[in-house]
Amino acid sequence: xxxILIVALLMTALxxxxxxxNRFDVLIKNGRIVDGTGAPWFRGDIAILEDRIVAxxxxxxxxxxxxxxxxxxxxxxxxxxxxxxSEFNVLVDGRAASKIxxxxxxxxxxxxxxxxxxxxxxxxxxxxxxEHFGVTQNWRTLADYFRRLETQSRPAINxxxxxxxxGVRDYVIGKDDRPATPAELEQMKQLVATAxxxxxxxxxxxLQYVPDRFASTNEIVELAKVAAQYGGVYFTHQRSExxxxxxxxxxxxxxxxQAGIPAQIWHLKTAYRS
Length: 274
Fold this sequence. Notes:
Blueprint (H helix, E strand, L loop, with lengths): L1 H20 L2 E10 L8 E8 L2 E6 L6 E6 L4 E2 L3 E3 L7 H4 L4 H4 L3 E6 L10 H6 L1 H6 L9 H12 L4 E4 L1 E2 H8 L9 H16 L4 E5 L10 H13 L3 E5 L7 H15 L3 E3 L9
Helix pairs in contact: 7-8, 8-9, 9-10
């Protein structure tokens, strides 16, 4: 017990010496710190050097280029928006002010339809909007899109995305209300595999909207199996939120079980009159 106490005291002393010698870039002091672990908030200081938090605790008197007094304010990790739709907006204005001002630093996009993959027809259909906002359409795959974010747009928030089953269906079939042929389904599965290799979080559907709603349960299962092979997840805006809510929930569960993939329902609710 004595040795543990001595080691703890030495570590505290060394940490204090290091803090006093370092010149931090930013020191946020007197904040109510919520650390994201579920523990109660505590009052303290946060030191930042370059792009890393390097110290948390009582850092009174520590030198810094910029000192922010956060008294009576909450300091927390950035929030993650799990259902965002800013994938195109950040190409228009990378500042993402509406997100940053709410504390959102990461957005997950791709509800049913994702920014990629896209083919020439899909790009032609989106051309008018892109030209209106002055966006050059220089991506076709998720790899292209992520490269553009890193080299051109450099948005203020982090962007993650699903590969949308509706977008994949649109890529191969268009917006026709018909089943996929075996060859078309294979092409769709390859598109999902490529997107997963390029960083997609998993597969998504938005089954109340065209063309997602034209997909059968089996089609979704087959695509979800591909995402599952890469450790992906399945997120869905389910097929019904009203009169067929129970059948819709059963479909989500069936897809999860048959594809062997974790499933999550976006905005689980019932709506509209019966």
